[in-house]
Amino acid sequence: MGINKNIMSAKLVKSSRKVIAGVCGGIADYIGWDPVWVRILFIILTIATAFITGILVYGVLWIAMPDQA
């Protein structure tokens, strides 16, 4: 099909390139983006949803995502 094998074998883990907990860096590594763009997008979405949703999502991912091995 059109699915990249690298994405299929990648695991979503916290990044060692962290600012707070490594969540945005881990997401960036998983999808192949620069972590700065994921952080900017997260900040925009957090502001747009009156902070509560963004903070809750970040907290859940902080707890749920395993550390990088």
Helix/strand/pairing category: mainly alpha
Helix content: 55-70%
* SSE string, helices as H and strands as E: HHHH
What gross morphology would you assign?
A: globular
Number of domains: 1
The total beta strand count reads: 0
Q: Please give the largest β-sheet.
A: none
Radius of gyration, Cα only, in angstroms?
13 Å
Tally of alpha and pi helices: 4
Estimate the mean pLDDT confidence: 85
Determine the N-to-C terminus distance.
30 Å
Low-confidence stretches: none
Q: What fraction strand?
A: under 5%
Task: Walk me through the topology.
Layout lengths: L4 H5 L13 H9 L3 H14 L3 H13 L5
List keywords for this structure.
single chain; 69 residues; mainly alpha; 4 helices; 0% strand; globular
Structure description:
The protein has one domain. The protein has four helices and no strands. It is globular. The mean pLDDT is 85. It is 59% helix and 0% strand.
Brief summary:
Helix content is 59%, strand content 0%. It is built from four helices and no strands.
